[in-house]
Design a protein that fits this description.
By secondary structure, the chain is α/β, with parallel strands linked by helices. The chain has 15 helices and 8 strands. Helix 6 (about 135-155) links the parallel strand 3 and strand 4. Helix 2 packs across helix 3 (about 45-70) and helix 7 (about 170-180) packs across helix 11. The protein is globular. The site of one fe (ii) ion has 2 residues, from loops. Pfam families: Ferrochelatase. GO terms for molecular function: lyase activity. InterPro entries: Ferrochelatase, Ferrochelatase_C, Ferrochelatase_N.
């Protein structure tokens, strides 16, 4: 067994969320259909999900989202896909195994990424879901999809999954340094805006059944099984660790959750409401960062940098400073390399 593992060829698959093929309304519609019909994103029974997504959301949202995508689209394509490819290229230069990318939704798919690795003789894959925090709608759906594809199309391939890394010192140090470098000289507060999820998802994925979405039974919980699966806990812990590293007082920071969809209750406080209200509390100069995303995308470049700025200024804010994601910064590529190498070495332990 040991000998077989040592002689097998290994490779890395970086997985991100994915974007529409183009900004054409039909392409955005096809993308949203695949994304929102995922039972780990809209977790209603199929018939109710189909009624909501295909009967309501897809009637109007594609046109609106297409307009938003047009404002961030580059000559090379969607920022999220372009940046993921840049990460791949830089990583490929410093590791000696093949590296490919795959998107959970749309193209290039996870299947296409695995196929490319197989074409290079790879039979053991380290799959890296590019999400620092665990969520049913991100990490879990990536693993489910990859396992489905593996069983159906590549039954001989072994896949080792990299776990959420929100609490790893190497990541926290990297994020803290990156933020510190980009902070303006004067700011009244640093806001950490994470992608939101419905509250129901938090309860649903808590194996310990102890989360009460509060300080004592969520943020400060010491129940390991809760902490390993609670997105909200992990977001607050990311913030705590980063500000401790930066030496920034808690009073100078804000945590909020963005991008909610539909009528369900999502985890609070909401970013858009926070941006409108904080100027009245004296925060006129704001720096904002989005650590649920490792690469800039529609949700950071449009929703925060453009819409968020408008909301803040509408509320009376003066200076709004968006801090970009880690993207393809060298220090982040080093972290990706270390996390991948840990898992590549795991294959030898089988
Ligand atoms: C980073 C973590 C993410 C979580 C958690 C997440 C949950 C989640 N998202 C939706 C609905 C939408 N999200 C959309 C875009 C989008 N979401 C993430 C990441 C997370 N989503 C990213 C990186 C992006 C950007 C993609 C890009 O192409 O740049 C969209 C599409 C855009 C739009 O129409 O607004 C939707 C819709 C739900 C419902 C959900 C949790 C249940
Ligand atoms: Fe999302
Ligand atoms: Fe929790």
């Amino acid at each position: 067994m040991q000998k077989e593992s040592l002689s097998s060829k290994k490779g890395i698959l970086l997985v991100n969320l994915g974007s529409p093929r183009s900004t054409a309304v039909n392409d955005v519609k096809e993308y949203l259909d695949e994304f929102l019909m995922d039972e780990r994103v809209i977790d209603y029974r199929w018939i109710f999900r189909a009624l909501l997504v295909q009967g309501i959301i897809l009637k109007t949202r594609p046109a609106k989202s297409a307009e938003a995508y047009k404002t961030v689209w580059t000559d090379e394509g969607s920022p999220l896909v372009v940046i993921t490819e840049k990460i791949r290229k830089k990583l490929q230069k410093i590791v000696d195994v093949p590296v490919e990318i795959g998107m959970r939704y749309a193209q290039p798919s996870i299947e296409a990424g695995i196929q490319k690795l197989m074409d290079q003789g790879v039979s053991e894959i380290v799959l890296f879901p590019l999400y620092p925090q665990y969520a049913m709608s991100t990490t879990e759906t990536v693993i489910e999809k990859a396992e489905e594809v593996r069983k159906k199309k590549f039954p001989t391939v072994k896949i080792n999954y990299i776990q959420p890394f929100y609490n790893r010192d190497i990541y926290i140090n990297c994020l803290a340094e990156s933020i510190k470098e980009k902070l303006p000289e004067n700011f009244d507060a640093l806001q950490f805006s994470y992608h939101g999820v419905p509250e129901r998802h938090i309860y649903k994925t808590d194996p310990s059944n102890t989360c009460k979405i509060d300080d004592a039974n969520c943020i400060n919980s010491n129940v390991d099984t809760h902490n390993a699966y609670c997105y909200r806990h992990q977001c607050y812990k990311t913030t705590e660790a980063v500000i401790a590293k930066m030496g920034l007082p808690k009073e100078k920071t804000i945590v909020s959750f963005q991008s909610r969809l539909g009528k369900d209750k999502w985890i609070e406080p909401y970013t858009d409401e926070t941006l409108e209200t904080i100027p009245k509390k004296g925060i006129k100069n704001l720096a904002i960062v989005c650590p649920a995303f490792v690469s800039d995308c529609l949700e950071t470049l449009e929703e925060i940098s453009v819409e968020g700025k408008e909301q803040f200024q509408h509320g009376g804010g003066e200076n709004f400073h968006y801090i970009p994601c880690l993207n393809d910064e060298d220090r982040w590529i080093e972290v990706v390399k270390i996390l991948c190498e840990e898992k590549l070495n795991d294959f030898y332990l089988v």
